Amino acid sequence: MKIQAYLAFNGNCQEALNFYANLFSADIKNKQTYEDKKIDVPSSYRGKLQHAELKGKGVHFMAYDASPDTPLNNGNQINMSVDLDNLDDGKQLFNDLSSGGQVHHEFREREWGHFGRCTDRFGIGWMVNVDK
């Protein structure tokens, strides 16, 4: 069994994936736009991503731009969880992810290690964890 996250965006999926690819040293793979799909979307939306994957060492998730007739609500339905071994890397990643977003729990020491939770500038929730 394999479980993956599939993130939905309101037309800024490419921008978000570029941000995450840079942050996680990952590659954007299997990009497909709405261009040649038999889906009823406006012509201005045809260049948006109908499917893409972010793949790298320890990271693999899928994402797309939801069609304009699919309402998306920024909320807490999904959090991406990242476990790291290095405290400095954890601090830096948390700072990068929370920049322009919202910090819910400061990245600090907890009983099990260091942890922080934020929502990034794209509305995606992140939990960054470094075990002791």
Automatic annotation (TrEMBL):
InterPro entries referenced in this protein's UniProt entry, alphabetically: Glyas_Bleomycin-R_OHBP_Dase (IPR029068), PhnB-like (IPR028973)
- Which SUPFAM superfamilies does this one have? Glyoxalase/Bleomycin resistance protein/Dihydroxybiphenyl dioxygenase
- Where does the chain cross the membrane? none
Taking every annotated instance into account, which residue ranges of this chain make up the domain PhnB-like? Answer: 2-128
Protein name, as recorded: PhnB protein
Q: Which organism is it from?
A: Maribacter dokdonensis
